[in-house]
Amino acid sequence: xxxxxxxxxxxxxxxxxxxxxxxxxxxxxxxxxxxxxxxxxxxxxxxxxxxxxxxxxxxxxxxxxxxxxxxxxxxxxxxxxxxxxxxxxxxxxxxxxxxxxxxxxxxxxxxxxxxxxxxxxxxxxxxxxxxxxxxxxxxxxxxxxxxxxxxxxxxxxxxxxxxxxxxxxxxxxxxxxxxxxxxxxxxxxxxxxxxxxxxxxxxxxxxxxxxxxxxxxxxxxxxxxxxxxxxxxxxxxxxxxxxxxxxxxxxxxxxxxxxxxxxxxxxxxxxxxxxxxxxxxxxxxxxxxxxxxxxxxxxxxxxxxxxxxxxxxxxxxxxxxxxxxxxxxxxxxxxxxxxxxxxxxxxxxxxxxxxxxxxxxxxxxxxxxxxxxxxxxxxxxxxxxxxxxxxxxxxxxxxxxxxxxxxxxxxxxxxxxxxxxxxxxxxxxxxxxxxxxxxxxxxxxxxxxxxxxxxxxxxxxxxxxxxxxxxxxxxxxxxxxxxxxxxxxxxxxxxxxxxxxxxxxxxxxxxxxxxxxxxxxxxxxxxxxxxxxxxxxxxxxxxxxxxxxxxxxxxxxxxxxxxxxxxxxxxxxxxxxxxxxxxxxxxxxxxxxxxxxxxxxxxxxxxxxxxxxxxxxxxxxxxxxxxxxxxxxxxxxxxxxxxxxxxxxxxxxxxxxxxxxxxxxxxxxxxxxxxxxxxxxxxxxxxxxxxxxxxxxxxxxxxxxxxxxxxxxxxxxxxxxxxxxxxxxxxxxxxxxxxxxxxxxxxxxxxxxxxxxxxxxxxxxxxxxxxxxxxxxxxxxxxxxxxxxxxxxxxxxxxxxxxxxxxxxxxxxxxxxxxxxxxx
RNA sequence: GCAGGGAUAGCGAAGUGGUCAAACGCGCGGGACUCAAGAUCCCGUCUCUUAGUGAGUUCGGAGGUUCGAAUCCUCUUCCCUGCACCA
Length: 824
Known about the structure:
The chain is α+β, with helices and mostly antiparallel strands. It has 27 helices and 32 strands.
């Protein structure tokens, strides 16, 4: 009988569905629960890619493993279905975003089923459905009530031809994605922000407690970017302008001040005669993308004002510069060219003076002509610094700050690099922000009973924001006074949707509440969360923030959403590069399933490499795994009778059970597979039913279909997927046997090697082995094994045997653990 | 630019101070089986040498630390991920 994986896999997928074995309820008393979650996908119209298959296989193996270990396992799937691609398709090819998205979802579900994933399909959620985004809006209002959502001006990419805001992705080389001849402009618009910075300190502190990969934790720390420094107040024509610095020790060296180009009060500060210059410079800036800004040369323009250094009362020029981040600190920095390379470059470019205020020991910072070769960023003694001259610069930081504080010219300040979360999107395909603007009442939240604010169907795409041009949507009565008012036309960032979806999975049909407290808390926090490292900061940070905010709003009682995080590596194309259509190296998992079956694909995906490592796709590996399954199939197919196990086999089985369990638990799936393969290879033609069943259980999380098939064939009535995971009996693991096997293996290698060497001139008929007397028994016990491995007749002597056959006197070479040999 | 990760035999990949010429898989070569191919099984697979041995050269590149380095440090090249409106 052939290994007809297609029919076999279909059969089991159908049965799992019919018997609802993966549907779960909270009420399972006496069972520990386990929440296993893979990051839900954006349902792209091109369907599942290999990275998805990898991600879901990793999670599925773990979920199945935990289920067999007796946990009540929640393993759900959903779709992050709002987002830009659907809207782009609407603009480009007049597709209806809803239809477009739902078609893609159907396709995703179909493909995911083919992988044999153990999801509870009754809990599927889709963020574009009103019964989901209603609760996005609900939470937005809660955040707003608590003062955690607010409005502020912020720069956006703007295309004058589309008459709309562009996403970073829609900006290509500074031009609009649809109009290659049109420069993107920067505009400042009123936008909604969420105060993630209120939780910055806690978000940072709690990283320590997470069972997450270290690199991700590091990236989160850096993203939050806590730094201690001082806020120093500069006087500019009578107004106080605060400047944040981590280096107050260099304050005597300030020779200019730079304000961010995106600073909301920039134009107030510019002197009238410099307005034109500054505006010209502003126009030159093409995009708000961080990487674009960084690639640009550090440039600035003098704005016609002078700032007074609070320590020296010296007046220094104020510039507007493209390298100052508006949202960090106060959006203004002090320039100390002698001790900061960026300031140094800027000063060189604009001919600004430099003044060294730190002198390193044993180092002459001025070259002979009195010029600084570069900024000196190290430590040393202060010079030219008034009463602080001669002190160590690191030690003096606190003192200078104290001094400024006493004189009310500054204060100690903790700064975070993390900025508040901009949640407004000037886009159609997202959850509408539930706010109304009334001339009399101002900003009015939509009352809870009126939620959801439905996203209108059949809108016009192409010119401007489709919600803004939709009169029916925009024109409403003020919920407070009943007069004419306008609806907010911004929708929410899709990260808003994905910040709490793991809670909704616990109670996905609830129409009264986002979720029931008890149900959510039965499962949460998520015990095991898997996804790509591309979410290292944003999604994972927003979800952590949301969890803390919802905790403080009383919706949940937990501090962190994801107890253990696992990042799978990226699978590159066979050429070693990222899979992409343009490179033509894309591998479609569905094609692979058709060719080799889902079990083989699942097995291959986790045996390529350690699942956390990036790796290159190689169809040969898949083929190799397929061959292994075919071998397995014919072996089990041929099983007619069982025999008794023996001590050696028991030792092997228990060793394998122990190792596979440990390897799965520690996410070393590739090692688990090696262990499983070795166990299979060590099976004799016949062994006990118990051994075979244990083997099937071990492989079932990886290859559930084929495992079910033979589990059934062996007469079991229920599913292997819900059977119990084998427990290793460590007392039956015999390390003596394992040692023996090693030395026997080594001896076999030696015999084979000699056999090969002499086979050129003669064909040996027998191998004579001379062992240390007390080892004789070991080799005799393994004689069959030895002959099987070497394919030659073996005769064993003790070196002390008088009547041994040893014409060349080889027996003298025998050492403990390494017998001497002679072949003829 | 900033932040994080990576580079190991023909290929993929294990290995983070000695037990390493380096697990495992693939590919390739040879043999068995077959009319033949495929499948399967066995043997081999850094180089030279050899009755199981011995020697040499390897772990992106260049230096360094150490009795000893794939493993630790410094510099360097290339690749991957994220950088706040892609999700």
